[in-house]
Design a protein that fits this description.
The complex is a heterodimer of chains A (174) and B (243). Chain A has 174 residues and is an alpha+beta fold. Chain A is built from four helices and four strands. Chain B contains seven helices and eight strands. Classes of the chains: A alpha+beta (174), B alpha+beta (243). The A-B interface holds A 108, 126-127, 129-130, 133-135, 137-138, 141-142 and B 19-20, 22-23, 88, 121, 170-173, 200, 202, 242.
Amino acid sequence: NVLLGCHRSYRSRPTHGIGKFKYLLPKEVPKKRKEKVQMKEIDAGTEYHYGDVNIQMTSYDLCLVEHFAQYVHRLCNRLSIRVNESYAMPTKTNEVLFMEEKGSKMQLDAVLTTHQRVVQIRGLSSTFAPILLEIIQSSQPEGVHLLMKQHTEADFKSRLKSRPELEELLAEMS
Amino acid sequence: SAAAQRPWKLFGAMCLLRLPRITQPLEKMEEEMAALMEQIELEKSHYSDHEIRKLGEEEHLRKMKESSYDEDEALGKTVIMAQDLEEKWEQKFLQFKAAPRITDADKNNDRTSLNRKLDSNLMLLVKQKIGNQELWLLPQVEWQPGETLRSTAERAMATFLGDHIQAKVLGNAPYGIYKYKFPSTIRTENNVGAKVFFFKAFLQSSDLSQAELKADHLWVTKKELGDYLKLEYLKKVNQFLLD
């Protein structure tokens, strides 16, 4: 009798679908693998806006460059300039060999690592751009190179790794 | 009508800045903080490869002195000890001489040279004749119809320093404006006064050997501006100067 008397939440019953909750959660879009590049604005006529501007900072000293990049990022936040991305380029390692000619030929090695950080900005008005440049330049630490340039596709591609196997297969196919 | 445009004479002036070459010295609190942080980091950090190697070799040496077992093994391996490397690096470091932060021009207080005050911005001031007075001003030149104000400012720079200046003008918009009325003796209906528009430029190269048309020029910092410029002019100029 106990078994016959249980009330299943069948379709005709008002309790149908009583435990469902997934419809309440936000929809998850499946992630796309490919990144889209082209999000560029062109300099308009009357109101001058720069499109995507890259501020690239390079140095041998890692802490210095990172702290400077953080400073620039926070500065842009405070000045309500939209920061698209703030990323690091892969570090380049240089080996410096000294050839001493006195007596025996000795090779003194030194290993130098070059670090680069990029802060990408959008919507910089051209009346404000020189002021920003001056602020950043005057707070530039010693040993850090600063470069401000417009974002191009080549810059974007330089971040991606080339896939030699894929290129070989494509070459074979065509 | 009174609301009609009163004809003002327009001038374009250029504020040429030489950027600082060194960082400014830290304040007392900053220095204490930096020292404290360094000490904390040193105490928290791990040994680097070089230090581990050095410690291992010192242990080795101690063992060799106490007991003569390891002599045959050790001599074959290490040709250059970590200690030797350190001594070599020390010697190299002693040979290196950094450039002086306070240059000769600082000691002589020679304000016409670009080599002084390497840690602050230097501005160009020239002596110009306005009306019948000789005044120290930022180089300015009158605007001619048909050219932009920025090119007026560039022309002002070129007249005082020659054409071969490598300076980067910041933006097309002026940074500040100073307007003054002529004294009532010269003032007429059509010639009420003058407006001076200031532009900023950064000096790219510090090699001015090819330039110098006028001898009365000075390179001054923001604090020293007060010695040369008039009050009202100084107020307007100070508004757009960062330091």
